[in-house]
Amino acid sequence: MANVDSDKTLRKMADAFRELAATVNSQTADVEVAPFSRACSFVSPLFGCLGIAFKFAEMDYVAKVGDLAEASKSIATLNAMLDRDIEGNCVRKAGSHTRNLLRVKRGLDMVRVLFEQILATEGNSLKDPASKAYAQVFAPHHGWAIRKAVAAGMYALPSKAQLMKKLNEDEASARVQMQNYVAASGPVILYIDRLFLSRELGIDW
What we know:
single chain, 205 residues, mainly alpha, Glycolipid transfer protein, GLTP, 11 helices, globular
């Protein structure tokens, strides 16, 4: 039974981010690109389960996590990755590792807020939790056309029960793993924000 449980998307996400959070909270080690990109890859299936409303996010997120995984073959830590882009004067260039890290971070944050909202909301609809998560994290960076398309897609979201089924979870186990991800991803997201802010790169571009 333990093996089946460890194969579940939410369990993989929660466990991987708990390990990253332990590194962040130790304050003695830099977060390495390889385990970070691996943890982020466990989040990808969740976007796929949310349907058309988050199709743009899924495609964008998966591509950028792939780029970070590729970068991990030659760059050890997130710190070093940002410094290399700063030296190469390509931080804000489309396709730069730094720009991709910022986009991936937003994906992680969107899922964190989505889980918080699901945990705080009664009923079977995901429309309110997903709308709030999108409005808080992605909408400020999107133009009118994308925001309108996402709003239309919200009506095609799975129900909470359908999402649980797609993730092979019952509600009780899902709530535990969602809470674990929310708790563990918070420090990791904050760590990434600080990487940018400490270098005066900003986080709103």
